[in-house]
Amino acid sequence: MTTSSTAPSAADARLSTGALAVTRHLLTHGPATRGDLGDYLRVSPASMSRLARVLVEEGLVAEEVEPVPGVGRPRQILSVVPGARHVAGCKITDTTAYGVVCDMLGDVKATARAALPARLADGTVPVTATVQVLAQLVARLRRRVPSLDGIGVSLGGVVDNRSVVREGTFLGWRDVDLATAVRQRTGLPVVITNDVTALAREQLWFGAGRTHATFGVITVGAGLGFGVVREGQVVEQLIDNGHLLAHAPVDGHGPLCGLGHSGCVAAHLNRDDLERHASARAGRQVTLAQLVERRTAGDDTAITLIDGAARALGHLAATFAGALQTTRIVLAGEDVATFAASPAMAETVADRLRPGPHETQRCRLDITVTPYTFNDWAQGAAVTGIQHVLGAV
Ligand SMILES: [Zn+2]
To answer: What distance in angstroms lies between residue 294's CA and the mean position of ligand 1's atoms?
Structure first.
């Protein structure tokens, strides 16, 4: 049984469906006239006036009246007030909590970070001490931006009901009601989300979602992550935590992944697997950073491994796009730029798209690369927090 992560006072602040639709449109597409908003959202002029009045009274939206030369009525232009809400976003890695404060537009106003407590004898990160670290991190951020309206926390793993960490991949957590614990310590509304889902939410409002209602996010770093947005809706929880895509076969004679598949995506692309293969070939421990240096120096093994990773990433992006039926894939994560820079990725995608001799349908994929830092991940958590505070999540 889980409890709601929203305090009663915050629930009152959540917007009606109509007001949320107007706010979301203004946030993602910029200022608009009442008339255009009404047309786009299919709302009558009377309803649009009422929604505008409510949002202006809430302080979320400002309205400017622009005279129209000649006869017509003046245009009423609505825009979001960026500082109307502020939310703290925290990204938890295996060792560190990264925090930011964002305004309504997702712009970062303050940053801070804190080390997580040392692991217990069983290898797990202690929950209560972690909640304390998060509360202290939020308190530090609050000294910089006092008017916090909520908190978004993201982490790798499986999250239920935007509250309970069913499986915290890098923390060793099982069934931890993190939202309730953080809310009790801070008194603020809290939303917990998978970290890649948070990036997908940020992209939906402020990135790929501005032009594509359906798109996929792939993250490459400490593990592979997947985010899915279909018809403007973020898929909250993947059925397989990304397993089916991460272990899709690329070549049957390739290196083994940790699960024993020959030449699956993870075997080529996952940082741990890549470092294991490089180390086995070198006869000593080799990190990804060292592998990249060796590739630059022309080392054959390093070229083979990194190009193999780039090909796997190309196959993965193409397969994901085909399954989702979207032309837009966002590649993100700390390691992604290393692989996307290899021509092998683009060549693989081009080869996958090459039509047969009698095929007339042509398709192009719009694959963007965004090498996120940990603060960018925290920003994704904050944007999810903003969406939560407004009632969109
Ligand atoms: Zn595998």
So the answer is: 26
Q: Rounded to the nearest whole angstrom, what is the distance from the C-alpha of residue 346 to the centroid of ligand 1?
A: 23
HSE-up (13 A, CA, CB side) for residue 31: 13
Q: Where are the domains of the chain?
A: 8-80, 85-202+375-390, 247-326+335-371
Strand order of the β-sheet with 164-168 is 157-160, 164-168, 173-177
Task: Report the topology of domain 8-80.
Answer: Arc Repressor Mutant, subunit A (1.10.10)
Can you tell me whether residue 174 is helix, strand or coil? strand
Torsion sign, CA atoms 356, 357, 359, 363: positive
CA nearest to 385, candidates 179, 88, 17, 30: 88
- Class level of CATH domain 247-326+335-371: alpha beta
Cα 297 to ligand 1 centre (Å): 30
| Identical topology for domains 85-202+375-390 and 247-326+335-371 | yes
Q: Report how far ligand 1's centroid is from the alpha carbon of 10 (Å).
A: 44
Distance 258 CA to ligand 1 centre (A): 7
Ligand 1 centroid – CA 257 distance (Å): 5
The pLDDT score that the predictor gives to residue 13 is: 65
241-279 confidence digits (pLDDT tens): 899 999 999 998 999 999 999 999 999 999 999 999 999
Distance 268 CA to ligand 1 centre (A): 9
Q: 85-202+375-390 is classed in which CATH architecture?
A: 2-Layer Sandwich (3.30)
The Å distance, Cα 271 to ligand 1 centre, comes to 13
Q: Over the stretch 3-29, which tens digit does the pLDDT of each residue have?
A: 444 444 444 567 899 999 999 999 999
Share of the chain above pLDDT 70, in %: 97
SS3 67: coil
